[in-house]
Amino acid sequence: MTSQLSIIVVEADRDRAHQIVDSLKTAGYDRIQVISEASSLARQISAFQPDMVLIDMTHPSRDMLEEMALASGPLDRPVAMFVDQSDDALTGAAIEAGVSAYVVDGMRPDRVKPVLDAAIARFRMFERMRKELAETKRALEERKIIDRAKGLVMKARGVDEDEAYALLRKTAMDQGKRLADVAEALVSSAGLLS
Amino acid sequence: MRLEELKIGFMPLVDAAPLIVAAEMGFAEEEGLSLVLEAAPSWSALRDRLCFGQLDAAHMLSPVPVAGALGLGGGGAKLDALAVLSVNGNVIGVSRAVAKRMKDRGHDFGFDDAIAAGKALIGSMDGPLRVGVPFPFSMHAELVYYWLSALGLPAPQNLHVRTVPPPLMADAIKAGEIDAFCVGEPWGSRSVETGFGELLLPGTAIWSFAPEKVLAVRSDWASAEQALGAKLIRAVWRAARWLNPASSRSLVSELMSRDRFLGVPADLIDRALRGRFMINGSGDGRASEGFVEFFAGAAGFPWRSQAEWIGTRLAARTGLDRDASVDASRKTFRSDLFRAALAGVAPDLPSASVKLEGAIDTPTAVGSLGGRLTLPRDSFFDGRIFEPLDS
């Protein structure tokens, strides 16, 4: 029986770090350290001597990890980005999800795969959450603009709220535009005239 | 006409200019291409996205394809350089504490003498000199090793070259982790603006014609998509030609300062493009001719001897066999594809693919397809000449 992998997670965001650690623990891995401080990353990592490092692809300090592939002192364990030539799909999926794994030299791909699978699932969820948040923000912004446009129409035409909304909606349909775009145009031109 | 779409990654640096100009000023459309530019957060992310097919081509450090061919560093697929995107363009800076020690010892910060600057820097250190560079496989690292080793500073004993992403360089200096740095623009000028560094030398003071960034694609893509690759080479070559006159350069500073490209004030970009620097917080100015070249002197031509120089340096430092490295390195710089793509388009191209590196002290006419090509100075600061094998 091989001993369990020790894993470092490089992640500055506390919540995200917790979630990654949780999902790795659920997958049966307990020896996990989190590094949140980017400075002297390579030194911190070599002090822990992990088997594997997981890092967000978009992390600007990721380039520091590349240096460890060259660290070849007698006590250093060379670490390289995990690329499994026999299973390009796995590495590709990791890159798409936005996570990179660095592993010590000579680690067998079948030992890396389950960890990476768990991390990929988690990072995909982050990506979904990020998109959902952006979407929600946009929807809120649009609602605010539409409300202001409705107010402008009500005041200028002396109509009630439902009628103002119907008028905006009809204009948008006639022009083949989105309601929010029509509202935005109205609000910005009203700003010019007032 | 339907445009063929290519996804191209870049790092937000001044020397991404030829790609940005090709995409924004109509040179790609002329070739029937639509370039979708995507900024990358790190060199390793950019390399991986290229290797795993999420990008068709990328702005890349010239040593990265060579390192890949030698089996160094991470990454999947092998990469080739279709063209050199820029020659030169780096600056070397020091922390303010080191600058003060150097001034106390009488260094004048003349910004032109690599021997005087190097000796003053070495002389001002008590312990090992620690230099931050953006990536382990970069012209930045190569220039630093070449310069300081030639001046007698042994690496790795007394010279520690460390990877520090430029956005984190200020923190690394504040934390006392590095004494000096070698970076591309606008990071050098930013270090002066934000007050943590002073500029010591332009990269040209070490090597006057150093291939800095290349247009990289996967090797299998280069073979399978030769027609597409040729279109891309032509679009980028025309963009570089447009960028060459000084009059274009202030316009392009404005273009590149936009948020989706560099997102820094146009003034900082302009300094690099015109080679007019502010080297410290007191506003002392220095000029640097040929600070960054995109076109002049056949700058775009990917000389196989440039790749060989890089490969030989990498091999010596990592203990690889020189002969095997030479062959693998050379193949990554595709002078064959560059020449084929520009036949009948460029007025003149070198007829050889290999040259002595560092042998030209004054601009010299060389053998070329049209017979009218002059190459600019390409000397190293110590006058050494690099002779490719079997040339």
Question: How many strands of chain A?
Answer: 5
**Radius of gyration of chain B, whole Å:** 20 Å
Using a beta-carbon cutoff below 8 angstroms, give the protein chain pair with the largest interface and the number of residues from each chain: A-B, 29 and 30 residues
Structural class of chain A: alpha/beta
Q: What is the count of DSSP helices of chain B, taking H or I runs of 4+ residues?
A: 16
What's the helical proportion of residues of chain B?
25-40%
Q: What overall form of chain B do the CA principal axes indicate?
A: globular
Low-confidence stretches of chain A: none
Order of neighbouring strands in the sheet with most strands of chain B: 2-1-3-10-4-13
First CA to last CA of chain A: what distance? 77 Å
Can you describe this structure?
The complex is a heterodimer of chains A (194) and B (391). Chain A is of the alpha/beta class and 194 residues long. In chain A, 59% of the residues lie in helices and 11% in strands. Chain A has seven helices and five strands; from the N terminus they run βαβαβαβαβααα. Chain A has a five-stranded mixed sheet, sandwiched between helices. In chain A, strand 1, helix 1 and strand 2 form a beta-alpha-beta unit. In chain A, helix 1 crosses helix 5, helix 4 packs parallel to helix 5 and helix 6 crosses helix 7. Chain B has 391 residues and is α/β, with parallel strands linked by helices. Chain B has a six-stranded mixed sheet with strand order 2-1-3-10-4-13, sandwiched between helices. In chain B, helix 1 crosses helix 11, helix 12 packs antiparallel against helix 13 and helix 14 packs antiparallel against helix 15. The radius of gyration of chain B is 20 Å and the shape is globular.
Describe the secondary structure blueprint for this structure.
The complex is a heterodimer of chains A (194) and B (391).
Chain A: E1 7-10, H1 14-26, E2 32-35, H2 41-48, E3 52-56, H3 63-66, E4 79-81, H4 88-97, E5 99-104, H5 109-157, H6 161-175, H7 179-193
Parallel strand pairs in A: 1-2, 1-3
Antiparallel strand pairs in A: 3-5, 4-5
Helix pairs in contact in A: 1-5, 4-5, 5-6, 5-7, 6-7
Chain B: E1 4-10, H1 17-24, H2 27-30, E2 33-39, H3 43-51, E3 57-61, H4 63-69, E4 79-88, E5 90-95, H5 96-104, H6 114-123, E6 129-133, H7 139-150, E7 159-163, H8 169-174, E8 180-184, H9 187-193, E9 197-202, E10 211-218, H10 219-224, H11 226-243, H12 246-256, H13 266-274, E11 276-278, E12 285-287, E13 292-293, H14 304-318, H15 322-330, H16 335-342, E14 364-366, E15 373-375
Parallel strand pairs in B: 1-2, 1-3, 6-7, 6-8
Antiparallel strand pairs in B: 3-10, 4-10, 4-13, 5-8, 5-9, 11-12, 14-15
Helix pairs in contact in B: 1-11, 4-15, 11-16, 12-13, 14-15
